[in-house]
Write a structure and sequence with these properties.
By secondary structure, this protein is α/β, with parallel strands linked by helices. It contains 10 helices and 14 strands. The chain has helices spanning 11-22, 54-63, 78-83, 85-105, 139-158, 189-198, 225-242, 258-269, 293-299, 308-322, and strands at residues 2-6, 26-31, 45-48, 68-71, 110-116, 161-167, 169-171, 204-207, 219-220, 222-224, 246-250, 256-257, 275-278, 287-288. A 7-stranded parallel beta sheet has the order 3-2-1-4-5-6-11, sandwiched between helices. It has a 3-stranded mixed beta sheet with strand order 12-9-14. A two-stranded parallel sheet has the order 7-10. Helix 5 links the parallel strand 5 and strand 6 (161-167). It binds uridine-5'-diphosphate-4-deoxy-4-fluoro-alpha-D-galactose. Residues 76, 78, 116-118, 140, 169, 187-189, 192, 204-207, 218, 220, 258, 281, 284, 288 line the site of uridine-5'-diphosphate-4-deoxy-4-fluoro-alpha-D-galactose.
Length: 323
């Protein structure tokens, strides 16, 4: 199949490109390189461009006979989305609508969307399944939920079939060490702790140790980026076979606290880590753990790297080889 990977130069998108190439697909990458990196594009046809530019998208679909579109290009910083909602609604919602409108014009009817656990807001119960109420508490989560809602309407009206995959905490790196997680500035826990281990950063801050959790620090469900890519492949197969739109939560169903992540990094790397306890970060729920039974039963998804130690080992290999 010919698959368009929008945002294929970013963290998860670049891993997806590698996974698609390995499984024999033709890949076209569309990325404006605002967050992604040219050197993360390891194959396929690269088109540098912006989702806001409808004419460019039109040319793209005229020159490439695309079967499926995967969309990874979005802004992902919760705190930034509160300060700059306009950028988040523009990039995550308006530009996605733009892409879908051009897809409708070109009769392309299969779409895989990178959604997020942030669509649920403060958990009402845990683990979080697909039926959990969706009440996002920040513009980032709202912009993603708005796309999910738009996709339901575009299915009814225009017949675009889609799968929205709600990632919990994407983590880890390509086991070959070729690709990894690079955000600038970095705000995610695992890469930051690894920067401390490698000596690129003095200390890791724990944002709050007075949460209602076993050790007082926040609990998250870390899912290996490779397992997310596998879910995308299964989602494409399911979409093409059933021609039905669906949403799936993707996580391991197992929570690790910030303190456990730091301890695990200390174990894996054998380095001593300086830790500082700081104030809570605004908008952080105490616990976010996925119930991914639906992805397991409907897609046949079975994460192959659920072990936090292995997730961290792959990320550590990348941290050591790249930086
Ligand atoms: N944390 C620290 N210190 C740090 C960085 C993070 O204590 O220096 C804590 C956070 O407070 C949080 C946990 O580590 O409790 C994980 O934080 P991340 O920033 O790594 O990830 P988030 O859970 O905040 O965010 C992730 C995705 C978002 C997505 C969200 C869904 O990165 O894109 O899950 O809730 F929106």
């Amino acid at each position: 199949m010919k698959i368009l990977v929008v945002g294929g130069a970013g963290y998860i998108g670049s891993h997806m490109v590698k996974c698609l190439l390995r499984t024999g697909h033709d890949v076209v990458i569309f990325d404006n390189l605002s967050k992604g990196y040219r050197d993360a594009i390891i194959g396929g046809v690269f088109v540098e461009g912006d989702l806001a530019d409808g004419e460019q998208l039109d040319r793209l679909f005229k020159s490439h006979d695309v079967d499926v579109v995967m969309h990874f290009a979005s802004f992902i910083e919760v705190a930034e989305s509160v300060k700059e909602p306009a950028r988040y609604y523009q990039n995550n919602f308006v530009n996605t609508q733009n892409l879908l409108d051009v897809m409708v014009e070109h009769g392309i009817g299969s779409f895989i969307f990178s959604s997020t656990a942030a669509v649920f807001g403060e958990p009402q119960y845990t683990p979080i399944d697909e039926a959990h109420p969706k009440m996002p508490i920040n513009p980032y989560g709202k912009s993603k939920l708005m796309v999910e809602q738009l996709l339901a309407d575009y299915d009814t009206a225009y017949g675009i079939k889609s799968v929205s995959l709600r990632y919990f905490n994407a983590a880890g790196a390509d086991p070959d060490g070729e690709l990894g997680e690079r955000h600038n500035p970095e705000t995610h826990l695992i890469p930051l702790v690894l920067q401390v281990a490698s000596g690129r950063r003095d200390a890791i801050s724990i944002f709050g140790n007075d949460y209602d959790t076993p050790d007082g620090t926040c609990v998250r469900d870390y899912i290996h980026v490779q397992d997310l890519c596998d879910a995308h492949l299964l989602a494409v197969n399911h979409l093409l076979k059933t021609r039905t739109s669906n949403n799936f939560n993707l996580g391991n169903g197992q929570g690790f606290s910030v303190q456990q992540v730091i301890d695990c990094v200390a174990n894996v790397t054998g380095r001593k880590l300086t830790v500082r306890i700081e104030e809570r970060r605004e908008g952080d729920p105490a616990v976010l753990v996925a119930d991914a039974k639906q992805a397991r039963s409907m897609l046949g998804w079975n994460p192959s790297m659920p072990d936090l130690e292995i997730i961290i080992e792959t990320a550590w290999r990348w941290e050591q080889s790249f930086f």
